[in-house]
Design brief:
The chain is 43% helix and 17% strand. The chain has 335 residues and is an alpha/beta fold. Strands 3-2-1-4-5-6-10 form a 7-stranded parallel beta sheet, sandwiched between helices. It binds nicotinamide-adenine-dinucleotide and thymidine-5'-diphospho-beta-D-xylose. It catalyses: dTDP-alpha-D-glucose = dTDP-4-dehydro-6-deoxy-alpha-D-glucose + H2O.
């Protein structure tokens, strides 16, 4: 099987590439990634010489670049490539529409033209909007995105759905809750707090810190996508989540305790505009129909994650200094 993974140099994509090469040593993987600020080939150092792995630098919104990859003969597409940070989408929405909507459409067209056995769109619970104090997102919850990021992801999802209904493309859409684990870019809450706390910097908490996110260890997200590729019923949406709802304040205090740092570092700042109050996923469908079960408990997963960031300080320090671009140029030429 030949898989095209887009966005495989980002946080979840790189974990997924490594996971699939380990779980399915016979599969070939082509990783197409534009290497935006969030793409980091250092994440993939452990597998860069694997003969079943190739990297292509390219933009999913560029028809010619996408076409060149499909000419290699692709069986399955897993689309992780996206602009993924809500705060950046508030400052600069255009690039989100370009990659998350137009980029998805370009990929869909190529998948339709060349024919694939599966197109998996990796999406997010944020397309459902915000929950009140009770209830969970199911696959039939209406889409009600509140940020330019989630609106652009919802736009991509709707195109994926339409290519199934109109052209019979064999698709699945997965909607996962907040991921955490190794290689997450230090703009996102958990790595941001760890890296700033280690430097005794103020820890910015938006609003009252009581917004709730539903956390899933990244490897458990990868195992769910693996199942969907193989057993997902064409046209279906699968929600992925581990029933781990926590307030942001709880997350930050857990990290501080683990690092032995004082809570006085916590600094309440102006709330994110349109800040969703609560996310919570009902994973009953993927559990029942595909037999998926997460392996990692939040309490141990967060400890392992903190330990990973402690052991890989050079990884995030280089990102924060921008020096990892030198590695890219050294490895793949100056482009
Ligand atoms: P990330 O920002 O860490 O990585 C995104 C990757 O996509 C980067 O390597 C970047 O270079 C690449 N990319 C961006 N624009 C591109 C383009 N036009 N063409 C090709 N490559 C491009 O993101 P992530 O956190 O790993 O998220 C991956 C996917 O999972 C996204 O689609 C996101 O919406 C979804 N998702 C993320 C989470 C989460 O908690 N991080 C949860 C649910 C769903
Ligand atoms: O400095 C901060 N202070 C703060 O209070 C940051 C960066 C975040 N927060 C809050 C906002 C959210 O309530 O923490 C929570 C998590 O924020 P992010 O890490 O930015 O994640 P979120 O907005 O929930 O979106 C993430 O999960 C769903 C990913 O970035 C998305 O790509 C994914 O779709």
């Amino acid at each position: 099987m030949k898989l095209m993974v887009t966005g495989g140099a980002g946080f979840i994509g790189s974990n997924f590439v490594m996971y699939m090469l380990k779980e399915h040593p016979g599969y070939e993987i082509v990783n197409m990634d534009a290497l935006t600020y969030a793409g980091n080939l250092e994440n993939l150092k452990s597998i860069e010489n694997n003969p079943n792995y190739t990297f292509v630098q390219g933009d999913i919104a560029d028809m010619e670049e996408v076409d060149r990859v499909f000419q290699q003969g692709i069986d399955v597409v897993v689309n992780f490539a996206a602009e993924s940070h809500v705060d950046r989408s508030i400052l600069e929405p255009e690039i989100f529409v370009n990659t998350n909507v137009l980029g998805t459409q370009v990929l869909l067209d190529a998948a339709k033209q060349y024919g694939v056995t599966k197109f998996v769109q990796v999406s997010t619970d944020e397309v459902y909007g915000s929950l009140g104090e009770t209830g969970l997102f199911t696959e039939t919850t209406p889409l009600a995105p509140n940020s330019p990021y989630s609106a652009s992801k919802a736009g991509g999802d709707l195109l994926v759905r339409a290519y199934h209904e109109t052209f019979g493309l064999p698709i699945n859409i997965t909607r996962c809750s907040n991921n955490y684990g190794p290689f997450q870019f230090p703009e996102k809450l958990i790595p941001l707090i760890i890296s700033r706390a280690l430097k005794d910097e103020a820890l910015p908490i938006y609003g009252d810190g009581l917004n709730i996110r539903d956390w899933l260890y990244v490897e458990d997200h990868c195992s769910a996508i693996d199942l969907v590729i193989h057993d997902g019923v064409n046209g279906e949406v699968y929600n992925i989540g581990g029933n781990n709802e926590r307030t942001n304040l709880h997350i930050v205090k857990t990290i501080l305790q683990e690092l032995g740092k004082p809570e006085s570092l916590i600094t309440y700042v102006t709330d994110r505009p349109g800040h969703d109050r609560r996310y919570g996923i009902d994973p009953a469908k993927i559990t029942r129909e595909l037999g998926w079960k997460p392996k990692h408990h939040f309490e141990t997963g967060i400890q392992e994650t903190i330990q990973w960031y402690l052991n890989h300080q050079e990884w995030w320090t280089r990102i924060q200094s921008g020096a990892y671009r030198e590695y890219v140029n050294k490895q793949y030429g100056d482009r």
